[in-house]
Write a structure and sequence with these properties.
15 helices, about 40% helix, 2 domains, Ntn_hydrolases_N, aminotransferase, about 20% strand, about 475 residues, alpha/beta, 18 strands, single chain, Glutamine Phosphoribosylpyrophosphate, subunit 1, domain 1, Rossmann fold
C-alpha cells in the first residue's frame, strides 16, 4: 500500500514484483544496489530468500528462512547459488551455507558476505563439499523412488555405523530430561512418532510425537529441562524450524537427525546427527524415513542398556530387507496388488502398536504417489468411527507383527471382514520381532510406487508437493 501511494504500478500480484519495486524505492536513498537490497529486505516479514541479478552483472542473495547455499569450483572460477548442495555437488569442492539475515554479494568475480541487520562484513568460512562424490543418477532403475527403496539395506548399515559416543551423549541427555518431544512434518512426522514410540517402549522415557505445524500450544509448557528431537531429510522444514527457534530461547535442548549437510536445523542443534543416507531425489521420502526410525530404535536400545542387541537386530533387518527386495515372487505379489488397487478411490490400512506409524506412513505414500484417498486406522479405534465405512469391496490393508497386539488387530480384521470388506495382507515376511515394523514399510513403499507408476503419475515429483517445505 505504501508503494501504491508512491505511484508504483504493478502488473502482477506476486511477492516477487513487490520486492523488486521495494528495492527500486530504497535505491533513492542508498549509495548502491546492495545497500538498497539490504534495506528492502529488512522491511519484509515472513520467510524470504531472494536472489537478484543486476544489469551490471552483480548477483546479490539474501536469506531469511528458506535455505541458501553457495558453491565454489576447485579453480574458484565458478560460483553457484542454490537452495541445496546436491544441485551443484559434482562441480564444487567448497561451500558456504548462509545463516538467516545474511547476504552474499558477487561482484567483479569476488564474493563477500554481510550481516543484513548491521551491514557489516562477515568472514568467508567455506566448508568441504562432502556430497561431491554422491551419485544422483537412476542407474538401472526406472525412477529415483525405486532406486532409493532398494538402497535401504545399505542405509540401515549406515545407522549401525553411527558414532556410539555421540549416541551416548544424547542418551544421557534424554534420561535427564523432564519431557522428550519428537517433532516432524509429513513423513518425518510419522518417523518422529515412531521414535517416540521406541523411546517409550524400550527406554521407558516420557516421549511425545508431534506434528511440526500443530505443536505451538506446547511452547508455553516447555522449559530448560525438556528436549526436542527433530528428524528431517532437508533440515530446513519451515514449521519445525519455527518451533525449535522459539524453544531454544527457553533453554530447551535440540537434537537433530538430518540427511542434508549444512542445514539450519543442524546448526541450531545441541546434538547434531547426520543420517548419511545419500541423496534422496524423489520427493516421496523412503530411505530417509527408514534411516530415521532405525536411529530412534538404536537410541532407545542404548537407553535400555541393550545397545548390542539393538545393533544385532538392525543387522538382521538389513539382511531381511535385501532378501525381500531380491524376492521376485513377493515383488510380483505387490505389483499385482498395485494393479488391483488403482481402480479404487478409497484405501484403508489397519495396524496397531509398533505398526501404527508404519500404516500412517503407508497411507502418506499412497496418497502422495497415487493421488488416491487412503486412511490409516488404529485397530483399537475401528469401532469408534471407521467401522461405519466398512462395506462390501472396500480394500483394507492389514499390517501386523508377531507381537502381543497381533490378536487385537485380528479381532478388528474379523469385524471388518464380517461387513464384506476386502482384507489384504502384505506378503509374508520374516519375524524380526522388535524391528519387524521397519521391515513392513518396504512392501507399502513398493505398493505406493507401483500404483503411482501404473497410473502414469510423475513418481519422482508428485503434483503439488515439494521435497523441502521451506515456507509455512
Amino acid at each position: 500500500e505504501n508503494l501504491f501511494r508512491k505511484y508504483y504500478k504493478f502488473i502482477s500480484q506476486t511477492d516477487t514484483e513487490v520486492i523488486v519495486r521495494l528495492i527500486e524505492n530504497q535505491q533513492k536513498s542508498s549509495r548502491d544496489i546492495s545497500e538498497a537490497i539490504r534495506k528492502a529486505f529488512k522491511k519484509l516479514s515472513g520467510r524470504n530468500t531472494i536472489i537478484i541479478l543486476t544489469k551490471e552483472g552483480q548477483i546479490i542473495a539474501v536469506r531469511n528462512g528458506s535455505p541458501l547455499v553457495l558453491g565454489f569450483s576447485k579453480d574458484k572460477k565458478e560460483i553457484y547459488f542454490s537452495s541445496d548442495t546436491l544441485s551443484f555437488a559434482p562441480h564444487v569442492d567448497r561451500t558456504i551455507t548462509l545463516d538467516n539475515n545474511q547476504m552474499a554479494i558477487y561482484s567483479n568475480q569476488k564474493i563477500s558476505i554481510k550481516d543484513v541487520n548491521t551491514g557489516k562484513n562477515i568472514a568467508l568460512n567455506t566448508e568441504e563439499n562432502k556430497t561431491q562424490d554422491k551419485v544422483t543418477t537412476k542407474e538401472r532403475f526406472k525412477h529415483f523412488m525405486l532406486k532409493e527403496i532398494y538402497e535401504q539395506p545399505q542405509v540401515i548399515q549406515q545407522v549401525i555405523q553411527q558414532n556410539k559416543k555421540g549416541l551416548m551423549s544424547l542418551a544421557n541427555q534424554i534420561e535427564k530430561s523432564r519431557n522428550v518431544f519428537c517433532i516432524g512434518s509429513g513423513t518425518a512426522g510419522a518417523a518422529a512418532s515412531q521414535i517416540a514410540y521406541y523411546l517409550r517402549v524400550f527406554g521407558k522415557i516420557n516421549a511425545i510425537g508431534l506434528i511440526g505445524a500443530e505443536c505451538s500450544e506446547y511452547l508455553n509448557l516447555l522449559n530448560k529441562n525438556d528436549l526436542i528431537i527433530v528428524p528431517s531429510q532437508s533440515g530446513e522444514t519451515a514449521d519445525v524450524l519455527e518451533i525449535i527457534e522459539k524453544a531454544k530461547k527457553k533453554g530447551v535442548k535440540i537434537a537433530s537427525y538430518v540427511n542434508m549437510p549444512g542445514s539450519l536445523m543442524t546448526k541450531m542443534s545441541n546434538f547434531a546427527f547426520m543420517s548419511n543416507a545419500g541423496p534422496e531425489i524423489c520427493v516421496m521420502s523412503t530411505k530417509v524415513f527408514v534411516s530415521q526410525i532405525c536411529f530412534g530404535y538404536l537410541l532407545s536400545k542404548l537407553i535400555q542398556k541393550k545397545y548390542q542387541e539393538g545393533i544385532n537386530n538392525l543387522k538382521k533387518l538389513a539382511v531381511a530387507a535385501e532378501d525381500v527386495l531380491k524376492n521376485k515372487k513377493k515383488i510380483n505379489q505387490i505389483k499385482k496388488l498395485a494393479q488391483r488397487l488403482i481402480s479404487d478411490q478409497h484405501i484403508f490400512l489397519l495396524g496397531k502398536g509398533q505398526n501404527l506409524q508404519i500404516i500412517k506412513e503407508g497411507m502418506i505414500k499412497i496418497i502422495e504417489g497415487s493421488y488416491r484417498h487412503a486412511h490409516a486406522i488404529p485397530a483399537g479405534d475401528l469401532k469408534h468411527y471407521a467401522i461405519t465405512l466398512m462395506e462390501a469391496g472396500v480394500p483394507v490393508i492389514v499390517v501386523t507383527s508377531e507381537d502381543k497386539v497381533k490378536n487385537d488387530v485380528i479381532n478388528a480384521v474379523n469385524e471388518v471382514q464380517a461387513r464384506g470388506a476386502e482384507i489384504i495382507f502384505l506378503p509374508e515376511l520374516p519375524n524380526l520381532k522388535e524391528v519387524s515394523a521397519i521391515l513392513n514399510i518396504i512392501p507399502l513403499q513398493l505398493l505406493a510406487y507401483y500404483m503411482a507408476d501404473y497410473l502414469g503419475n510423475n513418481v519422482d515429483k508428485p503434483r503439488n508437493i515439494a521435497k523441502s517445505v521451506t515456507v509455512k
